[in-house]
Design brief:
This protein is an all-alpha fold. About 75% of the residues lie in helices and about 0% in strands.
């Protein structure tokens, strides 16, 4: 694997990195990032609990998704815009931080879980959409999603405390 430390050092010493790190931009960007995270996790947990038949059983899954997915995708976009700003504030520390790497891995796995849900249980949504009971595959996707997003939040919180 190529050594990317020189690139990370260059990035760390560049003006955007120092501007974010040495001013109030970092807490401002972090606050917006956290609002995005709270919105994304909140909407995902609502959907996941519905998939697990633990909440909102009277709502068809399609109706719930129609209402919350714009919020979910907007929040994910906010996080995609603010995350790099946080990263470039201290790229050497973040890149080699175990909690940061775990967080990134868990986000990827959450995306894979969502893709698998879309390719499996979601394809038969018209058959079970209005039923209070969802299929086992949808329930499993919901459980995995909640676990992964809880892991993302936990790992993100631990970034400041581990190396």
């Amino acid at each position: 694997m190529p050594d990317i430390s020189p690139y990370l050092e260059w990035l760390q010493n560049n003006w955007p990195s120092t501007a974010i790190r040495d001013t109030l931009w970092f807490p401002a960007i972090e606050t917006v990032h956290l609002f995005g995270l709270v919105t994304l996790v909140g909407t995902m947990v609502a959907l996941d609990l519905r998939l697990m038949d633990l909440w909102l059983q009277r709502w068809p899954v399609s109706s719930l998704m129609k209402k919350i997915m714009p919020w979910t995708w907007s929040a994910f976009g906010v996080m995609l815009l603010t995350g790099p700003g946080l990263f470039i504030s201290d790229p050497l520390r973040f890149f080699y931080n175990t909690a940061f790497r775990i967080k990134m891995l868990l986000i990827i796995l959450a995306g894979v879980n969502a893709l698998i849900f879309q390719l499996t249980a979601f394809r038969s949504l018209p058959e079970w959409d209005v039923k209070a009971r969802t299929p086992r595959s949808a329930k499993i996707a919901g459980v995995i999603s909640i676990l992964l997003w809880c892991g993302v939040v936990t790992a993100g919180r631990w970034i400041g405390f581990v190396e």
